[in-house]
Design a protein that fits this description.
Low-confidence stretches: none
Oligomer: single chain
Strand order of the largest sheet: 2-1-3-4-5
Distance between the termini: 33 Å
Number of domains: 1
Number of strands: 5
Shape: globular
Order of helices and strands: EHEHHEHEEH
Helix content: 40-55%
Mean pLDDT: 96
């Protein structure tokens, strides 16, 4: 599985937790620095970030991918739309949460969310 990280760098411990939760080995971790210009369209900025990842159209559609989205909500939802267009489905995402009372602040892997499964369950409520 390839982990594409649009957020803060993750530790080896966090990578191990992701592997345990998914029952898949991470073959690669791609870090995509994500800073957004609030004066420019997010759709163009997100497309540029995704274009910077060296995956072919076939790999976007067929490789097992897991995403750590940017923490900024508008960027994250725009990224999900961009990825759905390229992949043909919603990818799984990693949810990270702060470790309570940690100093300095630390973060842990909270869960893996299968967005495609969430979408399919929601369609049943139409």
């Amino acid at each position: 599985m390839i982990l594409i990280n649009f957020s803060h760098p993750i530790t080896e411990e966090q990578q191990a937790k992701i592997e345990a939760l998914t029952n898949h080995r991470l073959e690669a971790v791609l870090h995509v620095p994500s800073q957004f210009d609030h004066e420019a369209p997010f759709s163009e900025q997100v497309a540029g970030l995704v274009d910077s990842i060296s995956l072919s159209p076939e790999e976007w559609q067929n490789k097992p991918l897991l995403i750590i989205p940017p923490a900024y909500n508008f960027a994250a939802v725009t990224l999900m739309a961009e990825l759905h267009g390229r992949m043909g489905y919603f990818p799984g995402i990693v949810r990270i949460r702060p470790v309570p009372e940690s100093s300095p602040p630390r973060f842990e892997i909270a869960e893996i969310i299968n967005l495609q499964a969430v979408r399919e369950q929601a369609r049943l409520k139409r």
